[in-house]
Amino acid sequence: MKRKFLIVGCGTTALNALKQIRRVNFQDEVKLVTMEPHLPYSPTSLPYLISERIKESEILMVMGHYFDQMKAELVRGKRVEHIDIERREIIYDSRERDSYDSLLIATGSEPALPPIPGLNNKQALQLRTLDDAKQLKSKMKGTRTAIILGAGLIGMHIAECLAERGVKVMVVEMLPQILQAYFDQDASRMIQGFLEKHGVIFLPNHRAIEVAWGKREVHVSLEGGEGLKGDLLFIATGVNPRVSFLNGSKIKINEGILVDSEMKTNVPNVFAAGDVAETKNFLTGKNGLSPILPSAVEQGKIAGMNMAGRNVEYEGWLPMNTFNYFGHHAISVGKPNPSNGDEMRIEKAEDKGLYKKIIYKDGRLLGATFLNVDLHSGVFQYLIRKRVDICGHEERIIKMPGESSLWLMHEAEKRETEALED
To answer: What angle separates helix 185-197 from helix 153-164, to the nearest 10 degrees?
Structure first.
């Protein structure tokens, strides 16, 4: 008897789950449901679409015929409003129902709107969907002054896009440094310096307390009496898992949907993965959210394999972030800052925008941050995940990070192959 796999969402997580299901069999039914009218696209490419470095056709992850090849059905433009656990059905906002034998929740995340009076106005711009990108791109035309609330990666991408167009950009951040969740203080300061050279103004340690809208401008009042005026207001204050439709469903939710190492929720035959899932951190073992592309890929694969009957465990998510800005490149893998007992090595040349830092303990790499260094971030992720012994090679990694990391990875793979042959 055929089973029915239902996937709510159609992003990176969902597509990777579909691939794994189809690697096991082509007999069972697979349906993917997305609230968006578009074919699956890459959300991480949206800033480059806005900056016109790429075209809309280039952000598509698959074309329509892909689902025919995978013998899967894609349903677009339908929003799931509730899940009926007892009947194993999802309920759409149209009140239609759809049954499942196994369900994957891969609904991603949505922008977190801070509770600022006046901000619940649709004139405030955000960036999470293709439609958001189109609206922002349209609003940017003719903009001379822009205010950005939040200095995370999305906020900094938009700051760069606007500054490139000659827009005066003011970034309001309640924390003392930009990109605080991604890079250490030195790296963040250097990145901020390059953005400032291109006209971006930063207001760290500032909190917006009210937003007022005029006919052609927006006013933002700051704590302490300061005020800003601009043509455009962009909100980049983080994201939340898209889980409101699960209220009353008995699926356990903390910050996100709680899942085990097989991406299973507390409800039988219901899985969750990607931005929406709360699972363990590889380094700490503690549960948390990881709304980044590498986690979406891996969690989607694990969920798909286990839905199809395999027993595969997720090792946990590992922070990994990159940021390209005005021809410069920043990358952070693992821990951006050391904990008690950790060791680290740093080399920097601020005048050249060069920064290298590794964090390690007991001969095992825990984190790496690099600015304007040619290397493969996936190799450093491998060294951390495989707990490759770097003892005695710390200085070499700092001096030649690209070459040294590749050599260490190849040596580790060689030892692993030899062990299997024995």
So the answer is: 20
Q: Quick one: how many helices (H) and strands (E) in the chain?
A: 10, 25
Say yes or no: 146 and 213 in one domain. Answer: yes
Question: Residue 319: inside a domain, yes or no?
Answer: no
323 lies in some domain: no
Q: Of 175, 204, 237, at which residue does a domain stop?
A: 237
Strand order in the sheet with 218-222: 208-213, 218-222, 227-230
Place of tokens 């039988």: 268
* pLDDT confidence of residue 1: 78
Cβ-contact 394, 363 below 8 angstroms: no
Chain mean position to CA 367: 18
Contact in structure between 348 and 356 (CB atoms under 8 Å)? yes
| Nearest residue to 310 via CA among 259, 257, 265, 263 | 263
Whether 302 and 362 share a structural domain: no
What pLDDT does residue 127 have? Answer: 94
Could you tell me the mean pLDDT of each successive run of 10 residues in the chain, 422 residues long? 94 98 94 97 93 92 95 96 95 95 97 90 88 93 95 96 95 96 96 96 96 93 93 95 93 97 97 98 95 96 96 96 94 95 95 95 97 96 97 96 96 87 70
